[in-house]
Write a structure and sequence with these properties.
Blueprint (H helix, E strand, L loop, with lengths): L11 E7 L8 E7 L17 H14 L2 E7 L1 H7 L1 H14 L7 E5 L11 E4 L7 H22 L7 H4 L5 H10 L21
C-alpha cells in the first residue's frame, strides 16, 4: 500500500520524470501536491500500470490534486546540459509553476538539486512508495506519451506512437534507414555503431 505523506508537512510535493532513456522527444517531469488524506487503491508506479489504467488515472489525479504541473524539456536543451540536468530542470520548472508553494519535496530516485529553500528527500523507487510521486510519474508519462503520439504523425516511420522514442530495435533500424529528425537527441548514442571508429 502506498503512503500518503513522508514529511508530515501539509503541502508535500512529489515529483518524477519520464523519458530519460529515450532517443527522441522531451524528458517530461511532473510535480503534484495531493490532499493529506488522499487515497486511491489503483494508483501505483506508472511502470506497473497498463497504458489504459494510466490514462484513466490521469484525470482523477488532475481533478483531486491540490496543485499539479508538468514540463517538457526538449532535445536541444537536453543536448546542451545533459539528460540528468535536464530531468532535474524539468522537475524544478514543474515545482515552480505549482499554485501552492510546497513545504517539502519528495523526489523519485537518488539525484536532485536544491529547489529554492524547500527541504527535500530523494527516495529510491519512490513512485512505488508514495502517492504523490506515483501521481507525478503517471502525469509525466501520460503527457509525454501524448506528445510522442502527436509528433508520430509528422514522422510515422519511427513508430513513436508505439515505442514513445525509446531505443527499440525498430526505432534504431528506422534511424539507420532514414537518419535523425529534429526530435532526436543528438548527444545520445543513437546507434550502437556510433562509437566504433573505422581505422
Amino acid at each position: 500500500m502506498l503512503k500518503s505523506n513522508y514529511s508530515g508537512f501539509q503541502f508535500e510535493c512529489g515529483t518524477d520524470e519520464a523519458g530519460r532513456g529515450c532517443l527522441a522527444g522531451p524528458v517530461t517531469a511532473a510535480a503534484v501536491i495531493l490532499p493529506k488524506n488522499f487515497n486511491n487503491k489503483y494508483l501505483n508506479d506508472s511502470k506497473k500500470l497498463s497504458e489504459t489504467k494510466r490514462n484513466l488515472l490521469r484525470p482523477v489525479i488532475e481533478d483531486e490534486a491540490l496543485s499539479y504541473y508538468f514540463t517538457h524539456v526538449f532535445p536541444d536543451e537536453i543536448d546542451k546540459i545533459n539528460i540528468l540536468n535536464a530531468s532535474i530542470l524539468a522537475m524544478h520548472r514543474s515545482i515552480d509553476k505549482l499554485e501552492t508553494q510546497p513545504e517539502y519535496i519528495i523526489v523519485d530516485g537518488n539525484k536532485f538539486k536544491p529547489f529554492k529553500q524547500v527541504p527535500f528527500e530523494t527516495i529510491i523507487k519512490g513512485d512505488s512508495k508514495y502517492f504523490s510521486i506515483a501521481a507525478a510519474s503517471i502525469l509525466a508519462k501520460t503527457h509525454r506519451d501524448a506528445y510522442m503520439e502527436a509528433i508520430h504523425e509528422e514522422f510515422p516511420m519511427y513508430n513513436w506512437k508505439q515505442n514513445k522514442g525509446y531505443p527499440t530495435k525498430e526505432h534504431r533500424e528506422a534511424i539507420k534507414k532514414y537518419g535523425i529528425t529534429k526530435y532526436h537527441r543528438k548527444s545520445f548514442r543513437l546507434l550502437p555503431e556510433q562509437l566504433k571508429l573505422d581505422l
